[in-house]
Amino acid sequence: MAVDFGDPRSGFRHSEVVVFINEEVLSNGGSPDFYLTFRSRPWNEVEDNLQSVVADPQVPRAIKRACAWSALALGVRVAARQREQQARRVRRLRGQVEECEGAAWALASELQRLREEKDDVVSQLQSARDDLKQALGERDALRERLIQLELSQEVAPKSPDEQHRIEAWPVDAGGRREALATGSQGTQDVESEAQMASPTAPGTLGEAEEALAPSV
Length: 216
Fold this sequence. Notes:
Helix 3 (43-55) runs antiparallel to helix 4. Helices cover 79% and strands 0% of the residues. It has seven helices and no strands. It is mainly α. It has a domain at 15-98.
């Protein structure tokens, strides 16, 4: 038997088809050798060997027909193998796609987190800028007040006593000398009065000594 229906890799789904192919191979004088030899080979090798059999004039036509039926069964087997390989490839690609999607979701989450952090930093910078602007405004206001205070102190009027002395001070030189002399004389009179009122004056001290001396 060329084709084994129990082989899941044969590619056939109906047993009647397998039985018919096996009967055609055997009825034409063929054997399972062609099928068993190339059942694991790629299709190009199967076709090349079938071409060599068909092109050989010394090979009987019945054998050629048997090899053709075996090649047909091998073609179905190759198609099933390719379908299985493609299914595995699709599953692998699907797994890679799922991994990429997971990575994309992770990157999207990370990007969202970075955007939120950026917005937070921008908000903090804006708040710091506003605070700095307010501090600079307060500094300028205090500086302006300080300048105004200094200017007001420079132009402030004198006290009443100082203003009276300034107004009473003579303008000409003679008047200033007379004022200085009057001030000096007044100072001397004050000192004389102080000496007369002092208990250490000579007359007062002599009288005190005579009063205290014992009589003879």
